[in-house]
Structure formats: structure tokens, C-alpha cells
Amino acid sequence: MTDSDKPNNVVDDIIVTLKYTLTVDGEVVDSADENDPIEFLQGYGEIISGLEKSIDGMKIGDSKKITVHPADGYGEIEKDAYVTIPRDEFPAEIPLEVGTEIDVRDEDDEVMTATISEVTKNTVTLDFNHPLAGKTLHFDITILDLRIPTAEELEHGHAHGEDWEEYEFDEDDFEEDDEDDED
User: Fold this and answer.
1) Are the beta carbons of 101 and 115 closer than 8 angstroms?
2) Among residues 139, 152, 104, which one has the least CA distance to residue 30?
3) Cα dist. 96→38, 84, 93, 128, 130 in Å?
């Protein structure tokens, strides 16, 4: 792709590469630099909506400080996202300490992440809110590159990046184990 084929600015349906530093309550909580930037398909919800909206129209090399309020970030803290469970239902290997993150399966066998928010003599309270829910996010970003997505990226609704490789299965990948048939 030549420079004349490159998109001029951030618009929907363009792959954006950016570096950022995310600060919450005065503390850096995440970052991606030019050696390991993030890449996403603009307009497809791959990043939080407040950040996606704020970079619209930016050009390669542009930098910006962006404040994202909870409603456009990870949402407000939802009181009904707290669940209290009897302490004796927890396996012994899980440390029952406030702040411990655990994966829990719901009724549909989906994995959800929860944080232990309270431990009493008889109960453990789990918080299923995103860890950044209710927080104002402060981003310092720079647009590193813009490019036209491939047809496959548009079809899939996300950037694949240079290391992405779709694996195609063949019959040999599904050979049955014959050991059980030797009775």
C-alpha cells in the first residue's frame, strides 16, 4: 500500500493503530507503546465507546488527552452485580481475600470474572462489575497508523493484525482415538 492509498483520518471501517497510557485516580493502570500498540477496527466497538468517539477525525501522528466518563467507559457501578454466596461453597484453594479475582461459570456455562469484595465468617460477596466501572478514565493517545481493512477483517468485525492467522482444519485434526476400541 502506498502513502496515497492510506486513509487520511480516523473514520469508521478503518484499522487504527495507536499507543496510549491510561490513568485512573492518578495511577497508570494500562498502556501500549509504539513497540506493542493496539490495533482495532474503528466503529465496531472493539474499544470503549468514549475513546472510539474521541479519536474520530484524528490523523497519523496526532496526539490527544481524552477523558472518558463512566457512562462512555465501563459503565457505572451496578448494585445488582454483587452476589453473596455461602463461604463453605468456595473450594479451599481459592484465597478468600478482598481483591482476589476469580472466574465463575454461570448457568449457561459462560465464564465471568468476579472480584471478592467482602469476606465474613459465613459469606463471601462477589463483585461482577468491571474493575474500572464507575471510574473516570484519562487517556493520553497518539495515532500511529491508519489502514484499509481487509475484506476478512470487515467480515469478522475486528482487526486481525500481522500475527493473526486463521487455522483451517482438515480430517487429520479429528482422528479418533482407537485405544478404547481394543477391549
Assistant:
1) yes
2) 139
3) 34, 13, 9, 16, 19
The reported pLDDT for the residue numbered 182 is: 46
Strands (E), the chain: 15-24, 27-32, 38-41, 63-68, 82-86, 101-105, 111-119, 123-127, 137-147
β-pairing, 137-147 vs 15-24, is: antiparallel
Q: Which residue has the cell 463512566?
A: 70
| Alpha carbon distance 148, 106 (integer Å) | 39
- Mean pLDDT, to the nearest integer, of 36-54? 95
Q: Which residues contact 74 (CB under 8 A, 6 or more apart)?
A: 48, 129, 130, 131, 132, 133, 134, 135, 137
Task: Give the residue with greater pLDDT, 95 vs 136.
Answer: 136
Are 63 and 140 within 8 A, CB to CB? yes
